[in-house]
Amino acid sequence: MASGEGRRQRHHHDLVPLAVLLKREMKSERMGKPTLRYGHAAQSKKGEDYFLVKTDCQRVPGNSSSSFSVFAIFDGHNGNAAAIFTREHLLNHVLGALPRGLGRDEWLHALPRALVAGFVKTDKEFQCRGETSGTTATFVIVDRWTVTVASVGDSRCILDTQGGAVTTLTVDHRLEENIEERERVTSSGGEVGRLSIVGGVEIGPLRCWPGGLCLSRSIGDMDVGEFIVPIPYVKQVKLSNTGGRLIIASDGIWDALSSETAAKSCHGLPAELAAMQVVKEALRTRGLKDDTTCIVVDIIPPDNELSPAPPPKKQNKLRDLLSWVRSRGSTNKVSKNLSAINIVEELFEEGSAMLAERLGSYDNSGKSTSGLFVCAICQADLAPSEGISVHAGSIFSISSKPWQGPFLCLDCRDKKDAMEGRRPSGVKVS
Q1: Which pTM does this prediction carry?
Q2: Is residue 370 in some structural domain?
Q3: Does residue 149 sit in the same domain as residue 257?
Q4: Which residues of 255-289 are buried (b: 16+ CB within 10 A; e: fewer)?
Q5: CA-CA distance, 235 to 141, in Å (whole number)?
Q6: 80 Ramachandran zone, left/alpha/beta (phi>0; psi -120 to 50)
Q7: Which residues contact 285 (CB under 8 A, 6 or more apart)?
């Protein structure tokens, strides 16, 4: 059994020579690296929407060819504490769950599991603070042509590709719309129903009780119950070299616009103006009834890359738009000559709320270089006698052996059992 004694944070990492990593990176190159252009726009009603844009991340520190970008939206509720905490810690927790010394393809393959671990660790740490705030989280990693999206809640991410095909890369975890999530919540001990007013009349969307939350997955929300889980839906796709446009937005956008309408409303605009236009269209349709936040990311083929103009002394949106339209015209001929077929290849998709299914099994049994076992969630080192297999006692992992990894520390095992409705979390609200 795991105990708090002797547990320490993981400091040991597999060391691989830099030359080997660089060779792996060069070997994995098959298409030119796309250019990213992004823009952000928002209108605040409650002050609970937060976002993250980080374009200088590196898989191999110091190696610019291993760079990737992160874009995320966190739509808080019952205060902004959970959204702020998640923005500050989620990325580091995800990266901390990835093994060291991986080539690009291996890194992308390990990413979905690391995202699950990072989301759960962030939720666990925030709940230990004793605050009742909660947040959605839509977390997007763009590594060349591969897009990986992890999400809890209803802050949607869509992909608009050349030709007008719109693909949703997230699942809305709303009790009103998701039958599977309603069944999971009730089977884990939650109650689902509408708000009842005088006379027994039920109004509004379906909610989870106690707490009255409309979502079935989020980070935080410790006052609602552990059956509101932080385990994300994850989807990973690879774009063709015609590129595409990502639109990531909070529900202030999606309650007003369909995915297709949002994509269509900003066709022909550069990313910054596109984000502004989506927000403008949502406000025109529904008014400012909620925080409204949008990030637009354009993944542009290298043949279509435009030389950026020097920044003007004074910003002029109309001039920027006219300049962009003229330069787009000069690249249309190149676009028509692209030989690649516009196909989005699905690499991974999983939405189960069961940790045993999401964490899978480790070939190395979850060992660190120190010879100790590692908790798959919090990355703490464990002696072999301390770790508890994520599969132990789970009816959802009958094909796995309970003595095989990945392993959990006692605290993370308690968290897992609470999320599955097998025991209370033990976390108290201050």
Answers
A1: 0.82
A2: yes
A3: yes
A4: ebbebeebbebbeebbbbbbbbbbbbbbbeeeeee
A5: 11
A6: alpha
A7: 256, 257
Q: Answer for the pair 393, 402: CB distance below 8 angstroms, yes or no.
A: yes
Low-confidence ranges of the chain (pLDDT < 50): 1-13, 27-28, 306-315, 322-341, 363-371, 395-399, 425-430
Which among 232, 202, 65 has a CA at the least distance from the CA of 135? 232
Residue 47 belongs to what domain range? Answer: 8-173+215-301+338-419
Could you read off the pLDDT of 66-90 as tens digits, one per residue?
Answer: 999 999 999 999 999 999 999 999 9
- The answer to whether 78 and 320 are in contact (CB under 8 A) is no
For residues 281 and 288, is the Cβ–Cβ distance under 8 A?
A: no
For residue 205, what are its two tokens?
Answer: 């969307």
**Residue 430 maps to a domain:** no
DSSP H/E element including 51: strand 49-58
Token pair recorded at residue 296:
């637009």
- CB 377, CB 124: distance < 8 Å: yes
Looking at the structure, tell me whether residues 399 and 324 fall in a common domain. Answer: no
Residues with Cβ < 8 Å from 376, sequence gap 6 or more? 97, 117, 359, 362, 366, 390, 405, 406, 407, 408, 412
363 and 272, same structural domain?
A: yes
The total domain count for the chain is 2
The count of other CB atoms within 10 Å of the CB of residue 99 is: 15
